[in-house]
Amino acid sequence: MNIQRDNRFLIYKRQSNMQHPKKERTFVIIKPDGIQRSMVGEIISRFERVGLKLTAMKMLVPKAEQCWTHYNKDEAWFQSKGERIVKGREEMKLPVEKEAIEYGRDIIGQLVTFMTSGPVLAMVIEGNSAVGIVTKLVGGTEPLTSDIGTIRGDLTLDSYDLAGMDGRAVRNLIHCSDKPEEAEREIKIWFDESEIIAYRSISEAMLYDVNLDGILE
User: Is residue 38, in this structure, part of any structural domain at all?
Assistant: First the structure.
C-alpha cells in the first residue's frame, strides 16, 4: 500500500468532505419513449461497457408529485428556456402568444405529462466521475443536435422545434443528473437508501486495484 498516496487522499477527503471519486453516484431515468422503443438494453450496455456499475434499478409509473419535485427549476431557468422557445417560434413565423417565462413554465408541465404517461426505469449508477461520464455518454438535451456517438445522437431524432410545434416535451429517451449534488438530491426522490446495493463487481479489479492484486485500495 502506498502510504504517502493514501495520506494525500485522507487529507483531500477531510478538506472536501467527499467520498472517493470511484464511489461517485449519478441518477438516470430511461423515459417512456426509451421503454416503448425497447432501448433499455442498448442504453444500459453503454454505461456498463465504459466500466460504470448499476447499484439500484426499478421500473415504475411515476406520480405527478414525484416528477414536479424532480424537475425543481427556478425563474431564471424558465426565462432562459422560454426565450429559446420564443426565438424558435419567431423563426418559424408562428405566433408568440405569451411571455417567454410562461413558455418556460409550460416545459415542466409537458415533462410531467410525458413522464407519467407510462413506465420508466430509474437507476443509480456508480463509478469514477460517474456524473460527467454519464452526461458525456447521454449527449445534449436535443437529439437533433446531439453528437453522433451519444445515446441521444444515435438513437432518436426529436428536436425543440418539433416538440414546440406539437406542444409537448422533447422525447430524448433519458434523463441524467448533471452535477454530483443534483444526483444526490434526485436519488433521494426516487430511491430509499436501503434499495441501493453496495457490492464489488469483478471488473472493478482491473479498473481500480492499485497493484492489480485483488485489493481495492
Answer: yes
In sequence order, what are the residues at sequence separation of 6 or more whose Cβ sits closer than 8 angstroms to the Cβ of residue 143?
A: 152, 153, 155, 156, 157, 158, 159, 170, 171, 172, 173
pTM for this structure? 0.84
Residue 113 lies in a domain: no
SS3 41: helix
**Helix, strand, coil content of the chain in percent (nearest 5):** 55, 10, 35
Q: Which CATH number goes with the domain that contains 53?
A: 3.30.70.141
Contact in structure between 48 and 54 (CB atoms under 8 Å): yes
List pLDDT tens digits, range 185-203: 999 999 999 999 999 998 8
Residue 175 is a catalytic residue:
yes
Strands, E, within the chain: which ranges?
A: 25-30, 53-60, 120-126, 174-176
Q: Which residue has the higher pLDDT, 2 or 134?
A: 134
Total number of domains in the chain: 1
Instruction: Note the pLDDT tens digit of each residue in 136-156.
Output: 999 999 999 999 999 999 999
Residue among 175, 176, 187, 191 flagged as catalytic: 175
Residue 157 domain boundaries: 26-61+118-208
